[in-house]
């Protein structure tokens, strides 16, 4: 099963290792969502999770997506730290000129 980045964010935010509880949570979230595009995204993702073969390996997929999203969050924080650093200069990372 391939997940889009938005589906991974949904799973990271509302999911848990139990597939049935994740489905229940997502259906409740879809019921509370007022944005039609977001509502469609949540319902489509719920339909993806209805696959019967998913039950055997869902917990492994959940932990893998969770680890991937945590790494993504850490990389965003690292990039923000680099951009806010006053000693960091773009000139330090310019390719050297071979003609000199």
Q: Helix count? A: 4
Structural class: mainly alpha
Major sheet details? none
N-to-C series of helices and strands = HHHH
Query: What share of residues is helical?
Result: 55-70%
Low-confidence runs of at least 5 consecutive residues: none
> What is the total tally of β strands?
0
Amino-to-carboxy terminus distance: 53 Å
Quick one: overall form? Answer: elongated
Description:
This protein is mainly alpha-helical. The protein has 4 helices and no strands. Helix 1 crosses helix 4 (58-84) and helix 2 (19-32) packs antiparallel against helix 3 (36-48).
Summarize the structure.
With 100 residues, the protein is mainly alpha-helical. The protein has helices spanning 5-14, 19-32, 36-48, 58-84. The protein has one domain.
Helix and strand arrangement:
Elements: H1 5-14, H2 19-32, H3 36-48, H4 58-84
Helix pairs in contact: 1-4, 2-3
Features:
100 residues, mainly alpha
């Amino acid at each position: 099963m391939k997940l889009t980045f938005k589906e991974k964010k949904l799973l990271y935010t509302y999911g848990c290792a139990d597939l049935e509880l994740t489905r229940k949570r997502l259906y409740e979230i879809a019921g509370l969502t007022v944005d039609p595009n977001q509502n469609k995204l949540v319902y489509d993702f719920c339909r993806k999770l209805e696959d019967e073969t998913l039950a055997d390996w869902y917990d492994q997929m959940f932990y893998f997506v969770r680890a991937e999203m945590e790494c993504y969050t850490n990389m965003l924080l690292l990039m923000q730290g680099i951009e806010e650093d006053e000693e960091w200069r773009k000139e330090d990372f310019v390719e050297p000129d071979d003609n000199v």
